[in-house]
Amino acid sequence: MNKQYDAIVVGARCAGSPTAMLLARKGYRVLAVDRAMFPSDTISTHIVHPLATESLKSWGLLDRLVATGCPPMHTYSFDFGPVTISGTPGTADFPVGYCARRIILDKLLVDAAAEAGAEVREGFTVDEILKEDGAVVGIKGHSKDGHTVIERARVVIGADGRHSLVADTVKPDQYNEKPPLLAAYYSYWSDLPMNGRFETYIRPNRGFAAAPTHEGLTMIVMGWPYAEFDENKHDVEGNFLATLALVPEFAERLKGAKRESKIAGATVPNFFRKPYGPGWALVGDAGYTKDPITAQGIRDAFRDAELCANALDQSLKEERSFDDAMGDYQSTRDADVLPMYEFTTQLATLEPPSAEMQQLIGAIYGNQKAMNQFIQMNAGTISPAEFFAPENLGALMGGPPNQA
Ligand SMILES: Cc1cc2nc3c(=O)[nH]c(=O)nc-3n(C[C@H](O)[C@H](O)[C@H](O)COP(=O)(O)OP(=O)(O)OC[C@H]3O[C@@H](n4cnc5c(N)ncnc54)[C@H](O)[C@@H]3O)c2cc1C
C-alpha cells in the first residue's frame, strides 16, 4: 500500500504540534491538520508550570516564549484563609512558571512544527477516520473552501482534544473515569499588578487564582462545584464577582483594576484512554483529560508528545513492535500522572481540606523548605506520591506528620 505520510496528526495545539515537530525532526513525513487557523484562542487558561518550560527549553523554544514578553512567575502562593503557603514552584534549572496566552503559545508551537518540516494544514476539518481491516489507515476531511480530500499514513495520531474524533472512531478502553467536578471560569484584567506571583485562594466551595500574562494583563480564574453549575450559569458574572469578594484584600486590589474580556468557562470530565491501537495513537487531552484545577494539561501534552514520538520512532524504524513501544508509552504516562490525577480530582471537589491536610498545612507554615515542596507538588514539579510519602513529610517536619 502506498501511504503518503508516515504520520498524520489531527489537532495542532499543545499536544499535536510538538508531536508533529518531534516526528518531523526525526525525519518522518508528517501532516498536521487543525480546523482552527493560527493564531487563535481556545477555551483554556494557560499556566505553564516549570516542568513544561523544561520541555520547551529542550526543544529550543523557551527563548521564543520569553521573547513574547510573558512575565515569569517566581512565586506561587496558596491562601487558605488562616494561613498562606508561598514558595518557589520549580527546580534550580527551571525555577519559574509562565501564564502564556494560548493565542501566542499555540502559534509558537505550530510554527515550530512547520519549521521542523511537518506539513501544517490549518482550517482543515477531519470528518472521518478511515479504517481498513480493523486498522486506521488515514483521514477524510475538508478545507475551508469545502474541498474534500483523503490522506493516508502509517499512523494517525489524535491530538484532537477531549472530544477526539479519533478516539470516538476507535473506541479505546476508558478507565479511572470520574464525572465533571467543578465549573471553571476566567477573564482578563488590566491594572492588577502581580509582581511575579501566581496567587491561589481557597475558600469553602470556592477557589480562585490570579496570574500575570501577556500585554500587562492579569488572568483571574475561578471555580465552583459542578453541582452548582446549572443554578449559577444564569449569573456567571455575579457569581464570579461574589467569589472574588470572599477575600476582602483581593477585592480591594480589584477596585483599581478593569475587566478587559468576557468571562469564559468550561467543565471537563476526568478519564484516561488507552492511547494506541492498530494504526492510531492518542496524545494530550484526547488520551487523558482531567480537571484544570492543578493546570497540568499543557505539561501533560508536552510529555505525551515526547513519549509518543519516541515510541512511534522505535516502531516505525522496526526496532520494537508497535504494541511493545506504545505499551511503554501508556504505562509510563499512567505511572507519571496517576498520583497527580488523584490529587487533582480530590482538589476539584472544592471540599474543605481534610483534618490531616489542615494539620499538614499548619505544620509546614513558616518552614520555607517544606512550603517550597508543597508549592512544587501543586505545580507538578514533584509528584504528590513523593511529597505525601510519610518519610518525606517526616523529614520535612523533623518527625512523623502526625506528631508535627
Ligand atoms: C477552563 C480550562 C482551563 C485550563 N487551564 C489550564 C492551565 O492553566 N494550564 C494547563 O496546563 N492546562 C489547562 N487546561 C487544560 C488544557 O487546556 C488542555 O489540557 C490542553 O489544551 C490539551 O491540549 P491538546 O492539544 O491535547 O488539545 P486542545 O488544546 O483541545 O487542541 C485540540 C485541537 O484539535 C483540533 N481538532 C479537534 N477535532 C478536529 C477535527 N475533527 N479536525 C481538525 N481539527 C480538530 C481543535 O481545533 C483543537 O485546535 C485548562 C482547560 C480548561 C477547559
Structure, briefly:
This protein is 36% helix and 27% strand. With 404 residues, the chain is α+β, with helices and mostly antiparallel strands. Flavin-adenine dinucleotide is lined by residues 10-11, 13-16, 33-36, 42-47, 125-126, 159-161, 165, 184, 266, 268, 284-286, 292, 295-299, 301.
Characterise the protein shown here:
With 404 residues, the chain is an alpha+beta fold. It contains 14 helices and 21 strands. Strands 1, 2, 7, 8, 9, 10, 19 and 20 form an eight-stranded mixed sheet that branches. Strands 4, 5, 12, 13, 14, 15, 16 and 17 form an eight-stranded mixed sheet that branches. A three-stranded antiparallel sheet has the order 11-18-21, with no helix packed on it. Strand 9 and strand 10 (148-158) form a beta hairpin. The protein is globular. It starts with a strand and ends in a 7-residue tail after the last helix. The model is unreliable at 400-404 (pLDDT under 50). The structure holds flavin-adenine dinucleotide. Residues 10-11, 13-16, 33-36, 42-47, 125-126, 159-161, 165, 184, 266, 268, 284-286, 292, 295-299, 301 line the site of flavin-adenine dinucleotide.
